[in-house]
Design brief:
The protein has 131 residues and is mainly alpha-helical. The chain has one domain (3-124): Rossmann fold. It is 55% helix and 6% strand. The chain contains 7 helices and 4 strands. The strands form 2 sheets. The protein has a two-stranded parallel sheet. The protein has a two-stranded parallel ribbon with strand order 3-4. Strand 3 (105-106), helix 7 (114-120) and strand 4 (123-124) form a beta-alpha-beta unit. Helix 5 (67-82) crosses helix 6. The longest helix has 16 residues, at 67-82.
Amino acid sequence: MDSSVWIDYFNGVVTPKTAKLDSLLGHETLTIGDLILTEVLQGFAEERDFNDARKLLLTLDMELGGKEIAIQAANNFRALRSLGITIRKTMDTIIATRCIESGYHLLHSDRDFEPFAKHLGLREVWCPPTD
């Protein structure tokens, strides 16, 4: 799960992505990266909201980087750049690479992941369109 979906979810923004996340919670094994955990938790102003979110997020599997993922992320960034595509955030490159290498499907609301799906095999979680 990318922070873009978690942030909308915790802010009560209803989208196909947050609805999908809500349907998966408690029914599927979900993974969050440690840096995504940081991104999400640092946005809470209220202590109670921070603690509630922390409690929920710490129930998820957690993994993200490491040497091999860092090197492959650099390779993926370079491959996309050679196609004329520049990813704006290194964090997104790492997240996409972890998902590609581990065979995870990524739920996100960030257009920077689209080239990874189109050119590098990132599998995305399908969400029905809104009416």
